[in-house]
Amino acid sequence: MQARTLKIIAALLIISAVFMGIIGYKISQEDSAKIRAAKQIQPQNTEQTNFSYAQKLIIANRSMDKGEIITTEDIQLIPYPLLVEGSYTKADDIINKKLESKVAVGAVIRANNFEKQSALAPYINPGYRALSIKVNEVSSAGGFLKAGDQVDVIFSMQASKETYNKSMSRRLLKNVRLIAFGTDIESEDKNIVVSDDKKKPSSKTIKESGKSSRSAVLEIALDDIPVLTLAEERGELRLVALGELDIEEAASDADLIDPELGAQKHMSDADRTAFIRDVTGLKPPVAPRSVYVYSGDSVETIKVRN
């Protein structure tokens, strides 16, 4: 009985071993199939992992305002799915350049961010306008004027029927800023740059922008624009350059102006009325009087006619 039991146990062990061998074989075959399948899929995953956009563009790391200078910390080069016109791919192309328009954070930096929107607008002070008048070598201080100079505007008129047989010569405007002269325009660093073709000035351009200039652009107060236009139509205008001491004295006088009353006018209402009457023979309507009403820290200007 004992020997028979041992035989049964031995037979069961053999059967178990065979069964386990079959299971192990099947498991090994399944693992091999999985490995082969993984090897077939792996190249496709590799291609997806290594996928990159066709170009990299420079974007802004932060929001920047007009007038700021681009630094290395302000920009970064990132892959971009689309080709943007006027964009940059090299940081050296824009480092230390000055922005002429506002740039939002994350925006692609473009060439038009560094282009001035207007040739004259950045140089005109609030409350003033740029007005061009005809000049020649004689009427522009021998053609030696430059953009940025301070000038007086002189009006002269010869006697004739059209001028009611009157001759006249008077200083219309004083201490007027010359924004542009010929092809030159005053830059923010007080240097002269060519504004017509946005190229560096050549010796020929500099020569022609002086004595052969045919126009001068003046910064004129709003109330003086009609007077200057009338004066150019009725007679001759000349520009007289101011000396350094007179310019400094005018600047010190401007600092004494009460900011609550606004900027000082180049012509008083009385002078403006007298000039129009003398030139046209017509008496303009009386200018309204200004009454200033103070309320705490604020001031209100009220025009009152007689």
From TrEMBL:
InterPro entries: Pilus_assmbl_Flp-typ_CpaB (IPR017592), RcpC_dom (IPR031571), SAF (IPR013974). It holds the Pfam family RcpC. Residues 55-115 form the SAF domain. Keywords: Membrane, Transmembrane, Transmembrane helix. The chain crosses the membrane at residues 6-27. Signal peptide: none annotated. NCBIfam families: pilus_cpaB. This is SAF domain-containing protein. It comes from Zhongshania aliphaticivorans. The lineage of its organism: Bacteria, Pseudomonadati, Pseudomonadota, Gammaproteobacteria, Cellvibrionales.
